Structure formats: C-alpha cells, structure tokens
Amino acid sequence: MTARCLLCGRPAVAWHHVTGRAVSGASYFDKSLVVPLCRRHHGREHELLRRNGLDFLPVGADPLGHRLARVLDLIGRCADHGRPFALEPCTPYGNAVAGLHVLLLEALGATVLPFAREEKAG
C-alpha cells in the first residue's frame, strides 16, 4: 500500500470504511468510501467509533443519518489533527470521491446524478 494515513501522513496499512456497516459481518454500507489509515490511527478510529456509539447501526436508527454521522465524525477528527479531509479517487474498493458523492446525493434525496441529465437544445 503506497497511500499515506489521512490523520498523520505515515504509511497507511489499512483502508478504513468510513460509513461502516450495520452489524459485525454485514456488508459495508458504502464499500468504495474508504480512507487510508496507519495501524495506530485505524485502531484508534475504531476505538473512538465504539466510544461514540457509532461503531454499528443502533437498533431503530436511521441508516442514512448514521452513515452521515460517521463521515462528520471523521471530518472532525481530521480537523483535530490539523489535516484536510481528502479522499482518494482510486482505491482497491473503487472511487472514494464518487462514493461520497452518491452518499450526499442520497442525503439530498436526489434520484438522478446532476452530470447525467441531458441538456435540452436551444
């Protein structure tokens, strides 16, 4: 892995799935939405998610709200470290930028990607 940790810049050892999954062993909510983390920060991220009640989807919780809360939690942690929240366009899991785009469109209730609409001629 040649990527650098999002939080400290050291060589990354894991691709962290930002929005996680509903329960242990389930499929990831947004498989392509990943960030590179070093060993220290990957373990710490999971510890903080557990501590903040964001490790898995609480019973009866809104999955979309939970996914967005996890993204915002990580963005805040980047700010705490004085680092920008930046996504890689090419990861082993796909395009993380596109994954975030899809999540945000879902949050807005969009059903069509803005760049996929055809413009009417004149």
Structural description of this entry:
- This protein is 36% helix and 7% strand.
- It is mainly α.
- The chain has one domain.
- The chain starts with 13 loop residues before the first strand and ends in a 14-residue tail after the last helix.
- The radius of gyration is 16 Å and the shape is globular.
- It has a two-stranded antiparallel ribbon with strand order 1-2.
- Helix 2 crosses helix 3.
- The chain has three helices and two strands.
Write a brief caption for the model:
The chain is mainly alpha-helical and 122 residues long. It is 36% helix and 7% strand. The relative contact order is 0.18.
Helix-strand blueprint:
Elements: E1 14-17, E2 34-37, H1 39-51, H2 63-80, H3 96-108
Antiparallel strand pairs: 1-2
Q: Report, as a whole number of angstroms, the end-to-end distance.
A: 49 Å
- Helix amount, in percent? 25-40%
State the shape. globular
Q: Order of strands across the widest beta sheet?
A: 1-2
- Tally of strands: 2
Number of helical regions: 3
Whole-number total of structural domains? 1
- Please state the CA-atom Rg, rounded to the nearest Å: 16 Å
Describe this protein with a few key phrases:
single chain; 122 residues; mainly alpha; two-stranded antiparallel ribbon; 7% strand
